[in-house]
Amino acid sequence: MWIETVGTVGVGLVVLAIWYRKRLEKSFGVHDVTDEIDVHGKVVLITGGNSGLGKECATEMAKRGAVVIIASRDAKLSLQVIQEIQTKIPSANITFMYLDLSSLDSIRNFSEEFQKKFDHINILINNAGVYCPLKRRMKTKDGFEFNFGVNHLGHFLLTNLLLETVKRGSPSRIVVVASTLSEKGRINFDDLLLEKEDPDKSKIHAYGNSKLANIVFAKELSERLVGSGVNVYALCPGWVKTDLARYMQLRWWNYFLIVPAAFLFMRSPGQGVQTILHCALSKKTEDCTGNLYKNCADWNTKSQITGEMAEKLWEASEHLILKSSTKKRME
Ligand SMILES: NC(=O)c1ccc[n+]([C@@H]2O[C@H](COP(=O)([O-])OP(=O)(O)OC[C@H]3O[C@@H](n4cnc5c(N)ncnc54)[C@H](OP(=O)(O)O)[C@@H]3O)[C@@H](O)[C@H]2O)c1
After folding, report:
1. For a substitution probing ligand 1, which of 183, 242, 274, 292 has the most ligand atoms within 8 Å of its CB?
2. Which of 163, 210, 315, 321 is the most buried (most CB within 10 A)?
3. What is the three-class DSSP state of 232?
4. Structural domains in the chain, sorted by start
5. Per residue in 146-202, pLDDT tens?
6. C-alpha 83 to ligand 1 mean position (Å)
7. Considering the chain, what is the average pLDDT of its residues?
8. CA of 330 relative to ligand 1 center, distance in Å
9. What whole-number distance in Å separates Cα of residue 173 and Cα of residue 190?
């Protein structure tokens, strides 16, 4: 008798979960493929294009005939991914270039090499990212807190080094993949690199800080580029099944919570990429710049972002990069 009851409750729960999931999926937002700009032959640079959202985005761009460059650290994986994409799309024009956003030298080398090969960029997608708990005490090669260093400072330098190349591709777009976890972040100008925090006790959301910095940077960049023909967008792709948790050192029991949560709430990379495509390709966003998007629609973030803060973050980022480079030169 009890077996029947448990069975009935179990089936009921599964049906309820499937119903909830289907209902939730309706809110994810879908990019309108009938209303896009033509990217055939256009140069699209995607940072971190070998996994998760970047891989999905590279596939979508290759499908449309774009010249796709994926820039990340893992050459072996990137070449495998390129082969996989070319098996699906034999005409795919896609290449890999080595880029380590945790090293200022690597970013400079990449930018130099890139500009030898391409004289313009039509779409730059700042997608690469890491989610690394502060307690892991990870730093970039230049000694910056890992999340802030890779997600913000790395892309800040890369974008600035490639800015003239992006302008030459105008009308062009810069798409910054941020996150709603930016709303848990804070820009503390007295301790941008979280050096005053105790990694074991700190409640600071280091990833959230870096994603807030992404959004603040996108805002300031859009202001500085007004009239240049380059539009800037920042977005949250939603919670997506990818390898982003690779630095989190999850234990096996964590998966008891993660697996049902993933089934109920998480998007597939195909669903997650939709807002990236909306920003990169949609004609609806053609005349917009400096806006935030989520679920292929406007996103009104809860974070307070002011022009003063954006200008100050720009200057502080320049200062951190300059200071680190000068120090290195003197060593
Ligand atoms: N998944 C989500 O739920 C979610 C939610 C909101 C926002 N996002 C954002 O979406 C973006 C894509 O992440 P994902 O979810 O697709 O994660 P993912 O599968 O882990 O992909 C991250 C990509 O970033 C690259 N990367 C990491 N460190 C790098 C470095 N130092 N230099 C160059 N490339 C580096 C990785 O390639 P290599 O390791 O080869 O370098 C990989 O291609 C990130 O910006 C993330 O913050 C994700």
Report:
1. 242
2. 210
3. strand
4. 40-330 (3.40.50.720)
5. 999 999 999 999 999 999 999 999 999 999 999 999 999 999 999 999 999 999 888
6. 20
7. 95
8. 33
9. 32
